[in-house]
Each structure stands twice: as structure tokens, then as C-alpha cells.
Amino acid sequence: MPFETAKEQKERNKHVREGANEEEFVNWKAERDQGLRKTKLLHPVLLANARGGSLLKDRQNA
Q1: Cys staple from 8: which of 4, 16, 24, 52, with CB 3.0 to 4.6 Å?
Q2: Residue 60 banded pLDDT, cuts 50, 70, 90
Q3: Cα(11)–Cα(20) distance, rounded to whole angstroms?
């Protein structure tokens, strides 16, 4: 089936499941995050955000 109803989502989806408490969700999220790779662009994005969206200028063209 290419879709799920809102009821099915509430029953099965860990993000929106009814009856899940905060501790269960935090434990699930921490476990999931440990298995994810770090993004390659995290550092450049943080730098751009710290500069108010400005990107570094190319040193050859400066």
C-alpha cells in the first residue's frame, strides 16, 4: 500500500506514536543517532551561519 492513514502512523511511527513516553523516545533517538554518519558539510554550514550567511571568499580572487 503506497500510503498510511493517520491512525496507522500513530500506531507504528516512533516519532508520533501515541503512548510513547519521553524516556523511550530519547533512548531510541540516541541509539539511532549513534549509527548515523556525520555530515560532511556540518562545519562549513556552522561557519556560514555564524557569519550571518556569508560564505568565505576565494583567496585567489580577494
Answers
A1: 4
A2: low
A3: 10
φ, ψ of residue 39 in degrees (nearest 5): -70, 145
Q: Which three cell numbers stand for residue 43?
A: 562545519
- Which ranges of the chain would DSSP assign to H, the alpha helix? 6-12, 22-34, 42-50
On the 0-12 / 13-18 / 19+ scale of CB atoms within 10 A, 48 is middle
CA angle 7, 26, 40 (to 5 degrees): 100
Percent of the chain residues past pLDDT 90, beyond the cut: 5
